[in-house]
Amino acid sequence: MKSDRLASVTAIVTGGSRGLGAAFARHIVSHGGKVVVADLLDDEGARLVDELGVSARYVHLDVTDAAQWASAVAFTVAEFGALTGLVNNAGVATGQFVEHEPVEHFRSVLEVNLVGVFNGIQAVIAPMRAAGGGSIVNISSSAGLFGLALTAGYGASKWGVRGLTKIAAVELGTDRIRVNSVHPGMTYTPMTAQVGIQPGEGNYPNTPLARVGMPDEIAGAVGYLLSDEATYVTGAEIAVDGGWTAGPTVKYVMGQ
Ligand SMILES: NC(=O)c1ccc[n+]([C@@H]2O[C@H](COP(=O)([O-])OP(=O)(O)OC[C@H]3O[C@@H](n4cnc5c(N)ncnc54)[C@H](O)[C@@H]3O)[C@@H](O)[C@H]2O)c1
After folding, report:
1. Among 28, 99, 197, 200, which residue is least crowded by beta carbons within 10 Å?
2. What is the Å distance from ligand 1's center to 250 Cα?
3. C-alpha 15 – ligand 1 centre gap (Å)
4. What is the pLDDT of residues 14-67, one digit of tens each?
């Protein structure tokens, strides 16, 4: 175990079977916390919790389904005695011009990426109140901080997650439930590998650090927000993006 800074945390991580969610689950357990990985990918999720051991469980969850959320929350409390953390990470991506994105597709992306987060927030309020407080970390994106071409439904959903985070933060503060958003930049996962993203120095020159991130590099911010080091942090947005949203790089400005 790397530390016990998350020893008081029992968290659900949605979309936790692979990619960023799996990195968050590994981080939570390696810092002493307990995790329930919740996903549609049952086999990958089961393999991950086997690897993580006694502090991890898997539950099938479609984040768009409020009834499944109720079951996942009840399962978590039954297995670990309380629920104090939620990482709303499940998401799907798009890659179309606004002009060409079918409205059905736009709606379906919002359903997972935004309604799914809304469902999660609603589902954990009662158990977090019962536990005396908690921390909700919503995974938005750089695409929720600036206008990113080819992300009509995706970008709109991630801006929505950023706004919903702040609304929940102001409403739930007196319950000692903190709500924050994390905005990863381009990160190497199955989602981005599908569109040809590769890790490596110099491979992503539009970003000041000139490379894409790795999932472990995003996990620290999530762990911080779940931990007692962040007891006065709510309604915040943390960009973990190699500087992507800080502004255009010199190469970009100089047209090189
Ligand atoms: N990879 C990046 O560059 C990047 C950048 C910014 C934000 N993000 C966000 O981080 C999150 C994780 O992305 P990733 O790159 O690991 O993607 P990924 O596709 O590798 O993993 C996403 C996970 O979400 C699960 N999922 C999808 N729909 C679901 C549903 N309805 N219910 C439950 N689970 C569902 C998938 O089964 C999968 O395990 C997403 O919200 C994504 O938008 C990713």
Report:
1. 99
2. 31
3. 6
4. 999 999 999 999 999 999 999 999 999 999 999 999 999 999 999 999 999 999
* Helix, strand or coil, per DSSP, at residue 145: coil
Q: Which residues contact 37 (CB under 8 A, 6 or more apart)?
A: 13, 16, 17, 21, 22, 25, 45, 48, 49, 56, 57, 58, 59
Distance from residue 128's CA to the centre of ligand 1 (Å):
24
Give the Cα separation of 77 and 67 in Å (integer).
Answer: 16
Task: Indicate if ligand 1 lies below 6 Å from the C-beta of 192.
Answer: yes
List residues with catalytic annotation.
154
SS (H, E, C) 156-211: HHHHHHHHHHHHHHHHHHHHCEEEEEEEECCECCHHHHCCCCCCCCCCCCCCCCCC
What's the rounded Cα separation, in Å, for the pair 178 and 143?
Answer: 23
Token pair of 214, please?
């790795």
